[in-house]
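WARN  no MSA supplied for this record, continuing single-sequence
INFO  ligand: iron/sulfur cluster
INFO  echoing inputs
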Amino acid sequence: MYATVSRSVFTSRFWSRGLARIRESKLSTLAKKTPTEVDTAVAAEIAGIAACKTPSKEAEVGPRLQIVRVYRWNPETPKVKPYMQQFSVDLNKCGTMVLDVLTFIKAQHDPTLSFRKSCREGICGCCGMNINGVNTLACITKVKESLQPLVIYPLPHAYVIRDLIPDMEQFLGQFHKIDPYLKRPGEDDFLGMRQILQSPRDRSKLDGLYECIMCACCTFSCPPYWWLGDKYLGPAVLLQAYRWVIDSRDMAHEERLAKLRDFYSVYRCHTIFNCTKTCPKGLNPGKAIAQLKRLLAGLTKKEKPDIETALPNPCQSEQQYLSRKE
Ligand code: SF4
Ligand code: SF4
Ligand code: FES
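INFO  complex generated
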């Protein structure tokens, strides 16, 4: 009771003093309203800064012109042969990457220029093209100001759909052939219903493989793929094949290897390492193919997983599985 009374007294005193202080400060502000000499000087300075126009970087350095030569072909005008179109781009007006330059050309010079792009940060793998003779991703390749022109072609030895857009149908068909997903024969009913365990050591075997974004820069830099692309799977797909073969959670490695054991699928690789040199993600498909060849030849064997995930017994928790299935 005492505490309640004293708290209410305290609160009312606090508010009355607080209000009194606010009133005092308002009165003092009104009293101070006449500007002093200092106020006038500060106001004059602020007005001067606002009026001052900072010269733009562009005006300081002038335009940074770069010649860009781009491969053009339009299937709607089949009688016009492919040609190189030249643009002069002011690098001050666009971003720093080749993809920015192409986007600028499309916006400011020629809206018919066609190319693929999506993530603009080296993740989706769709902006692969040949830039100054190197297969790479346009979105993570910096433009270097140079007297030499920046020359951009679609990925070499690929059929062209239009301008810088290569036809990826064969490449993706081959990727589909290697079954790029987890296979655990006999466990189909339980996939997605529980965790499949993997030790850190087994997980580390996937490093340098899982980062592949299927941009196909390596595949279209591989000479055997240029000549035998319909039979030889090429470095990107083989790197993915190896990734699934050595995954400790996958139980179909024998079946996967059997599919690759023919004259063309793997053995057309001559270990030239063009693929490794060009990979924009810094991966080593040449090494993955060499490991795959060793597995195929029986020189190495897939290790047993450090942790086995036991088959679930649906009878023990029938209700749980039934509800998840529903
Ligand atoms: S290995 Fe490299 S170059 Fe080849 S598809 Fe994967 S990310 Fe692209
Ligand atoms: S190492 Fe093999 S896959 Fe890579 S570029 Fe050479 S031949 Fe092609
Ligand atoms: S736009 Fe996605 S990798 Fe270049």
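Residues 1-11, 321-326 have pLDDT under 50 and may be disordered.
INFO  checksum written, moving to next record
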